[in-house]
Amino acid sequence: MRRVDERKINDILSKLTLEEKIAMIHGDGLFETKGVPRLDIPPLRTSDGPMGVRKEFARDCWINICSTDDYVSYLPSNSALASTWNRELAYKTGQVLGAEARGRGKDVILAPGINIKRSPLCGRNFEYMSEDPRLVEEMVVPLIQGIQENDVAACVKHFAANNQETNRLSVDTYMDERTLREIYLPGFKAAIFKGESYTIMGAYNRLYGEFCSHSKYLLTKILREEWGYDGAVISDWGAVHDTKEAAESDLDVEMSIGPDFDNYYMANPLLEAVRNGEIKEEYIDKKVRNILRTMFRLKMLGEERKDRKAGTYNAPEHREMILKCAEESIILLKNEENILPLDKSKVKTLAVIGQNAERLHAGGGGSAEIKALYEISPLLGLKMHLGGNAEIKYAKGYYVPPKEEKKLNWQQDSLDINKEDEALRSGHNDEETVRLQEELLKEAVELAKENENVIIFAGLDHEYDVEGKDRDDLKLPYGQDRLIKEVLKVNPNAIVVVIAGSPVEMRTWADDAKTILWSYYAGMEGGRALAKVIFGDVNPSGKLAESFPRKLTDCPAHSLGEFGDYEKITYNEGVFVGYRYYDTHNIDVEFPFGHGLSYTTFEYSNLKVSVDETGSDDVTVKIQLDVKNTGKVAGAETVQVYVADPVSKVERPVHELKGFEKVHLKPMEIKTVTICLHKDSFGFYDVNEHCFVAEPGEFEIQVGASSRDIRMKEKISLSRKYMYS
Question: Can you tell me which family this protein belongs to (predicted)?
């Protein structure tokens, strides 16, 4: 963490009145705190979100106050970014997000969101990265570094165990400590220790009975005492529930959703409590100190202001990076008979079916909504790519009921969205709807019959991938399963492209589809990226950062644990999240964690593993192998390293991801890949020792292209016991 001269903080603190200090620790606008003009202390200005800087709101109401100057670049979602498995792209994405936030005059960007994808139903999964903590660690660190390079604070969120939207304001989460430490905290720990995130956001939910945004266990014991964090802790909007608890916790800034700023828990009620002697002023001093320290790190105070970066937004180079990220995020799930890529020179007519071909996604999803400068839909991307040399025929394929006229306010209404009329999402199941659905289906099937080249665009949208609401099931909405099956009956070579923010059930048609292409919400250039992949200008290299289960009841959060409309949720599945569960119990999945095909093929060979235990308190396991592109086109492969611990005093997953490297190869090119693991790749959290322990004994190093495609293995032994925090 960037060092700050504490004497400067002490000097400012000594000059502040109690009233001024209180004013600095709560919102004085929906997205900003109050400054102290007489001491030249500015407000701390924040903005959503993870996919770009959110539109500009009025200070005290949720009305967009700008017309044209708050359009921004729309970035790929964190799910898309994680699917690249590319640390450099994570860093460059952070650079763009930070530059655009600075360009809009922001000090804190409320991102990234890194909650573990425990259940595929979570409405905000599209904002998150992975079911695997190691992949989250490896991607979030460069993302934060890129953001903060622009003198903007990242605000990693939501701390912690915020894994569902149902009852998110009050649900009380319980799990054993080992599960918390191994699965749900590592991403945040890496964000603090390696990414050096200047701020962190407390979550809405409760953990072990305490509200996370003023939890003494999370914020004091773990974050401050164990991790030594000296940055600023910001509450989620409306996540504070008690003045005394908030004041005496290690929360620094209370934010909320209403205009009564002086009545926030940490505003006038706290001021009166301090004056009455109920709460010590030293608690307030500590909060202000953390805020001032953050401001110094951002060059907001003193002489360093003149050196603060200005940032910019909507720069052409930003769009180039967004396109690159979108290209690498697209995942080829299946490609029998090498139907993809299509040959542009031979395609004279292309049938495009399904409304996700023309739907735009920037303007939805809750606080992740973006006022995009533009967004290229898949249909537009295909038209741009083919130009006038081919005719594109389009059929909607399915009926999407119109939304109700009322506009949801995502900071206010999402806090109570569980009570919203389900008509917002399900539409009206009347005779007219059935008639329209049948007409659109018939039109699509006829189009598929008449054309050789057919692409179905299916998936979800932000009526389903959305803040404040979880999905009810894994099924595709709007009758899309039937559409896909009927089209495949008349044209077995039809390409299925799924655009969504979380897995969908494919069992009814996956075996019949020869080609399945997957895209998360890929930003403003998503349609262009898809077109380039479909026609082979780009070789797909994305890999799944989450398992795709065949059915919901296979998912451990639902088969073993609890999820949904409960006051209390217990994570009975423990550490067996995602592939840790599926692979350990040999449960069939539709597509496994780490899976992703290419238009070329790769050969792994010459595995060499060495163990060095000469260090005083660590081990280095060096893994080397050769990867060869055995095909005719350039491509990229992500080599994945899993570790298995066959004999342990605790039950462990059959294997766990511990390292990876993405390598780009020309046709027939060979490169040597080196991945080094250390003690933190072999241990488990020992609840009796209150630390992580790597036991001496035998381990197996597994190298593969996915968690179910292990190409090479080698056993190693550790001679010593390693303990670490």
Answer: Belongs to the glycosyl hydrolase 3 family.
CA distances from residue 393 to 108, 119, 453 in whole angstroms, order as listed: 45, 37, 10
Interval 160-185 mean pLDDT: 98
Which member of 132, 151, 236, 645 is catalytic? 236
β pairing state of 620-629 and 602-612? antiparallel
Same fold across 316-591 and 602-724? no
CB atoms within 10 A of CB 121: 24
Pick from 574, 617, 599, 593: which is nearest to 723 by CA? Answer: 617
- Residue (of 547, 497, 499, 407) closest to 116 by Cα position: 547
Instruction: Indicate the residue type of 180.
Output: L
Determine the Cα–Cα distance for residues 96 and 126; give it in Å rounded to an integer.
19
Task: Tally the residues of the chain.
Answer: 725
Enclosing H/E stretch for 182: none
Domain 602-724 sits in CATH at 2.60.40.10
pTM of the model: 0.96
Indicate the SS3 state at residue 532: helix
Rounded to the nearest angstrom, the gap between the alpha carbon of residue 292 and the centroid of all alpha carbons in its chain is: 29
In the residue annotation, 28 being an active-site residue is answered as no
Burial class (CB in 10 A: 0-12, 13-18, 19+), 405: exposed
Model confidence over 224-248: pLDDT tens digits?
999 999 999 999 999 999 999 999 9
pLDDT at 91 over 60: yes
If pLDDT is split at 50, 70 and 90, which confidence band does 419 have? very low
411 pLDDT exceeds 60? no
Contact 244, 254 (CB under 8 A): no
The pLDDT > 90 percentage for the chain reads: 93
- The domain segmentation of the chain, as residue ranges, is 316-591, 602-724
pLDDT reported for residue 66: 86
Contact 231, 290 (CB under 8 A): yes
Q: Within its chain, how far is the Cα of 442 from the centroid?
A: 38
